[in-house]
Amino acid sequence: MAAIFALAPAAVRAEWQAVEEVRPYSISGRTGAELYESIGARGPEVGAGRVIAHTTFKLTWTRKYEAQGTACVITTNRPKLTITYTLPKPSAALPTTVKSSWESFIAGVAAHERVHGDTIKEMVKEIEVMSIGLTVADDPDCKKIRIELTRRLGEISQRQRQRGRDFDKIEMGDGGNIQQLVLKLVNGP
């Protein structure tokens, strides 16, 4: 993937930065087990249940489509990306022994979510490289290009989602990192 970006024209690699924000949700408890129970009751709802943490994003583009002869070309393609990490946060100070366990737990969970954020940023870079200069012949009204772009975006988006599912399956599976973090928190002080 790095080779693709290195070969991209300088205009494609124009500097942009994702805006990353943390949206905490309040939990309560004085022990690791109580904190985890509160996460189960108050965590973000995803699908049919609640999760410990969640990463979402909002992506918009500034694009310019130009007719060049009978073809249409994307000549400008700038992303605006905001990534939001929803993470638990105790509503009150924790006892010293629990605080240490909590800090290890939340650092591991936040690191997990940042991996999801990184795959989102990589997806946006892939879209950027793929679409700048995209040309569709026999499209002077720039209608066919939008259909082609949407098809390609769908493929890239599906790959990013699958990467996230594959990562979660490993991290949350038996013996996985998230499972280990939960066990240490619940069984700790």
How would you portray this structure in words?
It is a single chain. With 189 residues, the chain is an alpha+beta fold. The chain is 49% helix and 26% strand. It is built from five helices and six strands. Strands 1, 4, 5 and 6 form a four-stranded mixed sheet that branches. Strands 2-3 form a two-stranded antiparallel sheet. A hairpin with a 2-residue loop joins strand 2 (45-46) and strand 3 (49-50).
Give me the secondary-structure topology.
Layout: H1 2-7, E1 19-27, H2 32-42, E2 45-46, E3 49-50, E4 54-68, E5 71-90, H3 96-131, E6 135-136, H4 144-172, H5 177-187
Parallel strand pairs: 1-5
Antiparallel strand pairs: 2-3, 4-5, 5-6
Strand percentage, roughly?
Answer: 25-35%
Poorly predicted regions are 1-12
Shape: elongated
Helical stretch count?
A: 5
Q: Which structural class do you get from the secondary structure elements?
A: alpha+beta
The Rg value, from CA coordinates, equals 21 Å
Largest sheet: 4 strands, mixed
Q: SSE string, helix = H, strand = E? A: HEHEEEEHEHH
Tell me, rounded to a whole number, the average pLDDT: 91
Total number of beta strands? 6
